[in-house]
Amino acid sequence: MIICKLISEVRQIVKDQRANGRSIALVPTMGFLHQGHLTLVEEAKKSGAFVVMSIFVNPLQFGPNEDFARYPRDLEQDAQKAAGAGVDMIFNPEVDEMYPTRNLTYVEVGELGDTLCGASRPGHFRGVTTVVSKLLHCVQPDRAYFGQKDYQQYLIVRQMVQDLNFPLEVIAVPIVREEDGLAMSSRNVYLTPEQRTEALVLQRSLTEAEKWVHQGERSAQVIAEQIKAKITNETSGEVDYVEIRSADDLSALATLQGKVLIALAVRFGSTRLIDNKVLEGL
Amino acid sequence: MIICKLISEVRQIVKDQRANGRSIALVPTMGFLHQGHLTLVEEAKKSGAFVVMSIFVNPLQFGPNEDFARYPRDLEQDAQKAAGAGVDMIFNPEVDEMYPTRNLTYVEVGELGDTLCGASRPGHFRGVTTVVSKLLHCVQPDRAYFGQKDYQQYLIVRQMVQDLNFPLEVIAVPIVREEDGLAMSSRNVYLTPEQRTEALVLQRSLTEAEKWVHQGERSAQVIAEQIKAKITNETSGEVDYVEIRSADDLSALATLQGKVLIALAVRFGSTRLIDNKVLEGL
């Protein structure tokens, strides 16, 4: 497995692979890899592509009071895990390589980025779409893989790729969970043992919501309120949002129908966790 | 010469040319071609590339009270001129092909787009950078050619390409003028014969400003005021702006030094014309 720090190296290697007839797959990550990331790699490998994993903690998508500085990093372990999963090349640029001069250009996906996580993290998705644009231009993949835990991010990237005619396919990969149900996240390491136990309420409440829907409940408000009550009653978690939206375009829904996203964000201490469930065919 | 209306066709043809070892050059235009456009093509031909000219009047870069509807169009004559100049393919999409669904995504180059022409045309450069991004993703050229008459546009596109790591080179081509000195523009056809004569004051005042500089004048304010006075005294033109800026980043200059842009925009009736001069080595 190759580890590249420079964009020029990445371009050359990708060009050589293409000349050899390989297609290119990109798995963009911020590192501190877990099984969720490795599942993206597994999916990417299925196509026979040369698999590039970017590992870059992107300052542009963190707010001034967010965890950019303390975001967990461990390149050595990441490299072992990536190699084990069959990654062909890691692209691990320094911040100066990605932003050598003051960045003036931003890619924005309007209203899709202002809601849900965007409402409590102003500028976050603008940072994501800008760095993803940069990574796509550095690697020029045929396919890029995104995890559905960050469902809003996946929708936004998909919209950006469609609107701007990026020549690639965006592929969503289902959430990977720990054995006890917690959605995998690099931020789970922030949790104390007590918070780690409390955090199980996210998956539990989503599963319960699915039951309510199967029993006939169709009111978005009722379901959202019940989830909030459950989280607040059973744990010390502070609800950032619980929202029921169209899974196609995040538009508000009063009544559940079609393909529906139940998305939530909850703080345990200073750690903000997200989770979601997509229900289809309602 | 091929004429394509569909992005899928363009992609396939470009791919085939690449497979044959040709590099790709893009000359983005809004059509109604004049010698300025054809000079871009001449430059593009020099590299031996397969030359794609896009002809697309982009609604996104026109304000609600601007001339989108009446912007001059003449594909038949454009095709003749382009073929004569050696264009290999015209890409002439319908608006629906470029914007099949409601566009949510914009590319913005912050402050560079808010000044000069951006100040009197809010949203204009956002429309330009967004459509240029789309065209670059459709054609995937190695080089793209822009005329220096739209100097601010060239700087903005160059900045965007640098900031977002688009894998291509942006090339600026000097202004082409009519025999009497008027900078070529598709909008010149809007001018009445009287306005056409009055409009010569643009080039005249820029040439005179250059003389003042060679005679030692270094005050940006003095030069700008003298140009404004000249335009207002000699013609019915209404000055939108006369600005002296750094030609590298459009930053304001009190004293002329280094590489300097003298840029102006003047209305004759409802027709807004722009022109500029770059002075180097001050």
Automatic annotation (TrEMBL), chains A, B:
Catalytic activity, EC: 6.3.2.1
Q: Which InterPro entries match?
A: Cyt_trans-like, Pantoate_ligase, Pantoate_ligase_C, Rossmann-like_a/b/a_fold
| Residue sites binding ATP per the record | 30-37, 147-150, 176, 184-187
Q: Which reaction does it catalyse?
A: (R)-pantoate + beta-alanine + ATP = (R)-pantothenate + AMP + diphosphate + H(+)
**Domain of life according to the entry:** Bacteria
Check the record and name the SUPFAM superfamilies matching this protein: Nucleotidylyl transferase
Summarize where beta-alanine binds, as residue positions.
61
Would you tell me the Gene Ontology cellular component terms?
Answer: cytosol
Q: Catalytic center at which residues? A: 37 (proton donor)
GO biological processes? pantothenate biosynthetic process
Q: Which GO terms describe its molecular function?
A: ATP binding; pantoate-beta-alanine ligase activity
Which Pfam families does the UniProt record give? Pantoate_ligase
Spans through the membrane: none
Q: Where does (R)-pantoate bind?
A: 61, 153
The places in or outside the cell where this protein is found are: Cytoplasm
Query: Which UniProt keywords are listed?
Result: ATP-binding, Cytoplasm, Ligase, Nucleotide-binding, Pantothenate biosynthesis
Coarsely, its chief localization is: cytoplasm
Additional comment: The reaction proceeds by a bi uni uni bi ping pong mechanism.
PANTHER family assigned to the protein according to its UniProt record, in alphabetical order: CYTIDYLATE KINASE/PANTOATE-BETA-ALANINE LIGASE, PANTOATE--BETA-ALANINE LIGASE
Q: State the family named in the UniProt similarity comment for this chain.
A: Belongs to the pantothenate synthetase family.
Function in brief: Catalyzes the condensation of pantoate with beta-alanine in an ATP-dependent reaction via a pantoyl-adenylate intermediate.
Subunit info here reads: Homodimer.
* Protein's recorded name: Pantothenate synthetase
